[in-house]
Amino acid sequence: IPNSKGLRFGIVVSEWNSEITEGLFSGALDALLDCGTIKSDIIRWNVPGSFELTFGAKKMIQSQKVDAVIAIGSVIQGETKHFDFVCEATAQGIKDLNVIMDIPVIFCVLTDNNIQQSRDRSGGKHGNKGTEAAIAAIKMAV
């Protein structure tokens, strides 16, 4: 993993399913700090839900001098098609930012069938996808 000293990172965090997104944020923050980023070079913005991550990431790129943005969210399957629409729009939106912007936006959105799967991937038995997203952000920023 490259040293991240001197790089600036933005992290946009969905407030929805905060138990999960806070775990993902902690994993990302710890990884960035462990790799040499200083705390003042990490900017965190919250948005209401995963659907809003695209706009939050776009505004962060436009208004902050960052080398990469990590978009953190959690969408858990329910009984309706809302899950499908939110997941599709969020994935496409973040993909679009990577196509049109010159700053990488890292997709760290869990799309799980139930809360236990989300817990397992946000610091549980399957590790922390926030940590993985931070490593990807460092690699894309250098």
Biggest β-sheet strands, sense, barrel: 4 strands, parallel
Rounded average pLDDT = 97
SS-based structural class? Answer: alpha/beta
Question: How many extended strands?
Answer: 6
Report the sheet-strand fraction: 15-25%
> What fraction, in percent, of the residue positions are helical?
40-55%
Large-scale geometry: globular
Name the poorly predicted regions: none
Secondary-structure element pattern, one letter each: EHEHEHEHEEH
The spatial strand order of the largest sheet comes to 2-1-3-4
Discrete helix count: 5
Radius of gyration: 14 Å
Distance between the termini: 10 Å
Concise description?
With 142 residues, the chain is of the alpha/beta class. It has helices at residues 18-34, 53-63, 82-100, 115-121, 129-141, and strands spanning 9-14, 42-47, 68-76, 105-112, 122-124, 127-128.
Structure characterization notes:
There is one protein chain. Helix 2 (about 55-65) packs parallel to helix 3. The model has no long low-confidence stretch (mean pLDDT about 95). The chain is an alpha/beta fold. It has helices spanning about 20-35, 55-65, 80-100, 115-120, 130-140; strands at about 10-15, 40-45, 70-75, 105-110, 120-125, 125-130. The relative contact order is 0.25. The protein has five helices and six strands; from the N terminus they run βαβαβαβαββα.
Task: Please name the defining characteristics of this protein.
single chain, 142 residues, alpha/beta, four-stranded parallel sheet, two-stranded antiparallel sheet, 5 helices, 6 strands
How is this fold's topology laid out?
Blueprint: E1 9-14, H1 18-34, E2 42-47, H2 53-63, E3 68-76, H3 82-100, E4 105-112, H4 115-121, E5 122-124, E6 127-128, H5 129-141
Parallel strand pairs: 1-2, 1-3, 3-4
Antiparallel strand pairs: 5-6
Helix pairs in contact: 1-5, 2-3
